[in-house]
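Try this one yourself first.
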């Protein structure tokens, strides 16, 4: 089964991203198409990008980078869970993306966004520009949660039907694209060996 890595993009204390990511990861497990792993950027705690070499070279000097590289390298698909801060996405998420290069390539990527009336969609639009530069393939389907606090009760998400249907549609598309992109990743791995 392909591996889906769900990345929690907010590191702020009291963040809504943790329960939202937990809900989505559980939904992904119920979907049954993936093994699911979460990557919490608050726990991973990458320092501000501190590698002396360009990430495309893969010549990492720090253990935290090698660990992050291994985690993303084993992923077949990615989902970013992101809030919207001032029309954008959080700096720790950009930092985590910029640490790596080839590890992202030819992987399908989906987005679970949350916020106020815009549901984090402006952050996703910015993220799409970044991920396509890294040759990731964003799916059109997404989970966008407006007024997200109204869905969190006692630290758990109480999803509505729209959220569940959106999550399932995105997971179906991530699975479909993984099958299409897998040969490209295998060819790149063979060429690098």
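Now uncover the answer:
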């Amino acid at each position: 089964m392909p591996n889906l890595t769900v990345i929690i993009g907010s590191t702020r204390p009291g963040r809504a991203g943790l329960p939202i990511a937990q809900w989505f990861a559980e939904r992904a497990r119920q979907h049954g198409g993936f093994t699911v792993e979460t990557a919490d950027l608050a726990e991973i705690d990458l320092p501000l990008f501190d590698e002396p070499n360009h990430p495309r070279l893969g010549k990492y000097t720090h253990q935290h980078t090698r660990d992050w590289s291994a985690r993303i390298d084993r992923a077949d698909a990615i989902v970013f869970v992101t809030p919207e801060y001032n029309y954008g996405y959080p700096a720790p998420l950009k930092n985590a993306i910029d640490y790596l290069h080839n590890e992202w390539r030819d992987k399908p990527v989906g987005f679970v966004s949350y916020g106020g009336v815009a549901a984090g969609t402006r952050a996703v639009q910015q993220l799409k520009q970044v991920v396509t530069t890294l040759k990731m393939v964003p799916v059109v389907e997404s989970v966008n949660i407006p007024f997200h606090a109204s869905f969190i009760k006692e630290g758990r998400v109480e999803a509505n039907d729209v959220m569940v249907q959106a999550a399932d549609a995105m997971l179906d598309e991530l699975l479909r694209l993984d099958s299409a992109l897998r040969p490209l990743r295998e060819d790149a791995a063979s060429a690098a060996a």
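Discussion: The longest strand covers residues 108-115. The beta strands are 3-8, 35-40, 77-83, 108-115, 137-138, 143-146, 152-153, 156-157.
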